[in-house]
Design goal:
The protein is an alpha+beta fold and 573 residues long. Among the domains are: 55 residues; 169 residues, no CATH class. The protein has 11 helices and 28 strands. The strands form 5 sheets. It has a 9-stranded mixed β-sheet. Strand 7 and strand 8 form a beta hairpin. Helix 2 packs across helix 5 and helix 8 runs antiparallel to helix 9. The longest helix has 24 residues. It is globular and about 100 Å long. It starts with a helix and ends with a strand. The relative contact order is 0.10.
Length: 573
Amino acid sequence: MSRLLLALLIFLSTLHAQETLFRVVADTKTDTHIEATALFSNPSLGGYHPVRITISNNQKIPHKVFLNFNNTSAYSQGISASSSFSFEAPPGDVVVRDILVPLTVQNGDHNAPSFSVQLSGSMGKAQGSASPIFTPTLACVLLSEALYTPNGSALDTESASRGTSGYGGIRNFSSKFDPKRLPDDWRAFSGFDTIILTETDWADVPPGPRNAINSWVRLGGQLIVYATGNPTPASLGLPEDSGFGETLIESIASDLRLKAADTVNLAYKKRAIKHRLAAISNDFNSVWPLQIAFGEKSFNYILFVVILLAFGIVVGPVNLFVFAKSGRRHRLFITTPLISIGTSFILIALIIFEDGFGGNGTRITLMEVRPDGNQNAAFIQQEQFSRSGVMTSTSFTVETPALIAQTPLAMSRWARFTSGFRSSGTYDLQPTSGGLFASGDWFQSRSEQGQLVTAVLPTRGRIEATNDPATIVSTFDFSIEILLYRDPSGQWHRGENIGKGKPTKLTPVDPTMVQPILNDTAKLFTDRNQAFLRRVADRNDAYIAFAKQAPAIETHPGINWQSDTVITGPIAR
């Protein structure tokens, strides 16, 4: 009986939705301890991993601890990212902090990531790790503990039949979570494509995490709620319009048993939008419209060949028979280094002349602005491509909470991060108060790089209706070149050169005049963002606007950016 009880306890322990990375007791008499708990059982492939730090200091002395996280690929020449956090615990106090640990960028099927943490400081030393369970060919899914317990094994089996095994031969359908212990930052969910939970689970989610999930949905996430009745989105506190994402309400029996094939299909096949990692891995490395529009960089081989030939002539025959004639060969110890140094300076000057300092780039932003429901937020998907010259510093700061991912480019002499096996680099991200500090290889000298930036920004900007149904007012701080508005009856209207606070009369236009503009605009983006734009383009009482002066998410200040912005959203009434 005792063995059966022990086995049952071991089995139940595996069902916890959180993963304890480490627990260290600094003083057993007072139970002074520190614990790091991952709020999801397994990390996603990219994005952030939410970790809850609990420090119980029951001693009369303060404690300070340091956590160093590392996320690397399994290959010796791979991709790595690191971050660090420090905490102070006053005497007799309990400190609880939620942190977001950045996960390494991905380069397709070749990057098998590992996740580890090291503790140091006055409470001792410890190590912890978490194992990946996903494969890049399939979506990353979060499943509530209530659904995982009766369905996890069947879903894993069904998922394994859909694709190759995950890293290390493991392929699970989902990571699991406890609805009552969720983070309240949308970035914690950013590495996942689908969240699945029950109606009861959703009721248990606190207001902060609920808002974070809603933001994640508007950025393109898929939320699936299983219910035993027939609730409406409004009755669940969910928006009718999910922006770039989608919300599904599905039926389930009272025993919470799922049909494994149907559930896996919902997450993998029935979405019209490509999952995030597949988009990053495949959409940027061959026919990226932004890179094509930027153009290729030529290389002046002839000039460099001439310089090298001149160097060979000067350091050889001229040096030997002119600068260090017979009887003066000892001068070779002076002339040869001077000629080499001089040629090096010429080459450096030529490189600077050819490439310059800093660089140039182009970026296009898809921005969904939601003034409704007291959100007053902009949900941003930003693609950017740049070509750098000589970079005096590769570090930069993002002044807003964001997710930034390096995208693998097509192989070329300028691309440093590609989908090939030999891609390597360090892409460190350190969360700061309200932003990010990035360092490492994000913007290397004399290279081409692409990034995908996702963010949620507060904004009071909107397009407002007036008493005249054909007149609108913009409160954006920038001018809009063209605005296309589809009224409640489905009729399209057009306005141009719309400034802040100035009522603008819209002109009715035929749909045949609108569709070519929308098609040409969609072609500026990669496949995933094209799908987002098409999802919101056919809404009534909503608009699509085009602006060149709209603010973008700023990354490296040494790059001279050219920006275009496509703004979507409902009319504010």
